[in-house]
Design brief:
Layout (H helix, E strand, L loop, with lengths): L1 E5 L7 H8 L4 E5 L2 H8 L5 E4 L6 H4 L6 E4 L8 H11 L4 E5 L6 H16 L3 E5 L3 E6 L2 E5 L4 E6 L4 E7 L5 E6 L9 E2 L4 E5 L5 E6 L2
Parallel strand pairs: 1-2, 1-5, 2-3, 3-4, 5-6
Antiparallel strand pairs: 6-7, 7-14, 8-13, 9-12, 9-14, 10-11, 10-13
Amino acid sequence: MKAAVICHGSIWDFEFHRRLLKDCDIIICADGGAYHVKKMGMQPHVIIGDFDSCTREFAQSFSGAKIIEYPSEKDDTDAQLAVEYALSNGADYIMLLGATGTRIDHTIANIGLLLCIADKGVVGELINEYNRATIIKDRALVKGKGSLVSLIPYGGDVRGVTLKGFKYPLYDFTLEMGSSRGISNQLVADSGEISISGGRLLVVRPLD
């Protein structure tokens, strides 16, 4: 099941995001993400959160949407609650939209949700108009000859990094946490393979 979690971060191109939502089986709004979905002319299936950025009245304006309300004093962000809902309902792919913006703390936390998703054996992507990001724990195949791809260790060193089909190949290399070694590599083949033997690797594809 393909799920979309729409957060209340920055969205500039609503048509770009609307196209992404068209193929989703379930659309989950994390609180104020409902405003974004309204601007896209889409219908959410679930609106979840403490309703500090989206009023319950606005949420109820979506006929048929399931509303799940949490207290304002809670341990998890609305985005994490939405991701956990998607996971508990059988999602095998989750995209995070509206997950970046002026609040760098929320942006970093939302990138961390990619790890929560990966730890469940599910594919997750954080997507905005300029980037696609995911976290891998074993291997991934990326397509698009000429595309830039950046590899960033997440939470510690990444061992056994092997790249095939890239301008700057690597074999059984250790990318150290804090190193910029993996920034702005480029696909020279139609598809490239990334594999690691240990650690967690944040893979970012700039789209601009």
